[in-house]
Amino acid sequence: MKNTLSVRLVPLFMLFLMVGCSKTPVESPQAQVEEKPSTVVAQPETVVEETDIIGDLKKPSKLEDRFSYTYGYLLYSTMAQQKGFSDLQASYFAKGILDADKGQGFYTQEEMSQTLYEVQTKLLQIAQEEMEALSTANLKVAEDFLETNKKRESIKTTESGLQYEVLVEGEGEHPTEKSIVEVDYQIMLLNGKIIDSSYERKQSSTFLLEAIMVPGFIEGVKLMQAGAKYRFWIHPDLAYGKEGTETIEPNTLLIIEVELKSIREGR
């Protein structure tokens, strides 16, 4: 989700850089000249027919013309598809390009920077609102599931709310947070999507247990003995919480299967 926000803001960051490097001159106020009554007889106005220099262009054949058209087409299409840019005005977009080519536009660099800042603020607000809505929805899904899951006969629930199921019993000592454990594991979402798996990598993982950033995982592994295999259902508060990660949405419930292969004490 964080990537989504980053993608939205990339065009703006690029525009900020371009505005900062732009040499668009600041328009100076024109000197006021006192007008004197005219003695010239007014002539009928000549009507000048305006032409659409863009709309009247024909399909290009030269490489530089084809590239110019293609670049403009793709740039506008990409921006228009992003949330927050859906109201992009094609006519003013084209006008801005033409004025930039002439080196004379409606606004100063400072005014354009202010406009970009206002749009960035708007996009951040939209992203924040979407993130909060997603977080609330995910939390409800997680808690509804856990409320039903805990009623299953094979499910045990700890005081923290961690739910687990013993698939294979182990034997021996239990690890502590200071233990170095060797495990095989698989992390899944409620929809069955696997987001990490040592089985797929075909290589067990060995690490200091307290170094893991998921409290529910640490608590669960401490319940195990060597040779055991458990399945855990971890409430978002015991996982990545409201923040989520690059690949895990905020307030997402995690399902983790863990096979504890060995335990040794850390230094």
Automatic annotation (TrEMBL):
Annotated keywords: Isomerase, Rotamase, Signal
Keyword flag Signal: yes
Domain (PPIase FKBP-type): residue spans on this chain: 178-264
GO terms classed as biological process: protein folding
UniProt enzyme class: isomerase
Known EC number: 5.2.1.8
Tagged with keyword Signal: yes
Domain of life: Bacteria
GO molecular function, one term: peptidyl-prolyl cis-trans isomerase activity
Family that this chain belongs to: Belongs to the FKBP-type PPIase family.
This protein's name: Peptidyl-prolyl cis-trans isomerase
Lineage: Bacteria, Pseudomonadati, Spirochaetota, Spirochaetia, Spirochaetales
